[in-house]
Fold this sequence. Notes:
The protein has three domains: 4-171, Monooxygenase (Up-down Bundle), CATH 1.20.1280.50; 176-454, Cupin (Jelly Rolls), CATH 2.60.120.650; 465-495, no CATH class. It is built from 21 helices and 17 strands. The chain has helices at residues 49-53, 57-62, 70-74, 83-90, 95-101, 106-112, 115-126, 136-143, 161-171, 176-180, 192-200, 217-220, 223-229, 244-253, 267-270, 272-276, 360-366, 418-425, 430-433, 443-454, 458-483; strands at 54-55, 158-159, 186-188, 206-209, 234-237, 240-243, 262-264, 300-305, 310-314, 321-328, 330-336, 346-347, 354-355, 379-384, 387-391, 396-401, 405-412. The strands form five sheets. A seven-stranded mixed β-sheet has the order 3-4-15-10-17-8-7, with no helix packed on it. α7 (115-126) packs across α8 and α9 packs across α17.
Amino acid sequence: MPGAFHSLRLLPLKRRRKCKRRRSRIRSKFSNPSSDRSFRLKTSAASLDIGRFVQPLGNLFLSSSPCANLRDAGLGALRPLPDDLLLDVLGLLPARDLAALSAASKALYVVAAHDPLWRAHVLAELGGAFDFAGSWRATYIGRRARLVPPRALKIRGFYSDYLFQSWLCANMEMRHEWLARDNIERRRGMSVERFIAEMEEPNRPVLLEGCIDSWPALQKWGRDYLLEVSAGKEFAVGPVSMTLDRYFRYADNVQEERPLYLFDAKFAEKVPEMGRDYEVPVYFREDLFSVLGEERPDYRWVIIGPAGSGSSFHVDPNSTSAWNAIIKGAKKWVMFPPEVVPPGVHPSADGAEVTSPVSIMEWFMNFYSACKTWEKRPIECVCRAGEVVFVPNGWWHLVINLEESIAITQNYVSRRNLLNVLDFLKKPNASELVSGTKDRVNLHDKFRGAIEAAHPGIINQLELEAQQKAAAKKKKASFWESAVDANNGGFKFSF
């Protein structure tokens, strides 16, 4: 077999007697509706091959008449590799070798059918010019007609928690307890002055109602309208560009753990009608990055995605604040303050990289319940059409679409956040941290110079106000902080 797999040797497979197994299935935590850990599957889940092939490993251990795991019997020399590493190895193979490998044994047929392996090949070879055929494997094979897919097999006895959980995350419904918590402040009709004093100054999230009711987009942005005004234009979808009609065909048929997300920063330039169909809510109209004109970093995006798509935990770029307005659909938000790193998220010490090794659904499965015992629990909400979420600078946030959704989001810099942004842009490793612009090295100097030219004295004024607030806060707390030990109720001396 040519290619990367050529140097790996498969050990001879021994014939094994078929194990006599009961037809009754074990009711594990994944299928028992009365369990606290139960999950309800989407109606389309049964149509996917991997769900028929793979069972959680606990089913093998708990079986009253267990037989050998088909995984171990059919992987040969690859058997010692854990499943995640095994898939990394298979990800090095050309598509033709991956297809040939799936004919080597039933176990390799299952592993080589892992759809993300084929997604990488489709996107690398076809870019956004593909017509999704229900799975990435079928999409690739359908486009490359010379590859004959292996015949459909009836496979039982393959146990893998890793593969099963990947399939489960792609095919389960959001649990009620994940959606029930809604503790964000909701405001309607508040003045700009109150928004600044009560939300922006203290850096607190808020859900705003009624502030985009006049947007034409709320009435116009159905599929037919968007397809008409954007005909022939391509939008950024993950690592590729796609026309909207192709993306909608993909979204209608996809069932995967990490669906592709349309997230385009140039939509208003590509389709001016879309830019005219909304206006910035009154609370966010002071945007000091605008002094840079065309050199400003990317700041606005149209976001479109099917149920299950979304953004895993991140902090918005360049220390900016943001607002996110829902035009169609609904989104679940989970937000942590800047000083609280979400469970399962691992930022580097310099902030240049953030590792979040799990998908959104996997985070809910494995980490959400842990937050119940935290002193600083996350801010959560479900945001629906016509509502706007304010995301203060530095806040970690995760967003998942509960249904097909369309939204507009913008990042901005107001005078309440100007000093934070300037500090961020002048960090020693700013060239690694800054995003959305070609000139990462000189952005701080350009921005500061443009601000001083457009708003003379504003930076010095804000720095003076910040010093005065810090001094007032220290003075206010100085007596009791120096006299009372809050931990034991006694007095202490401080000189």
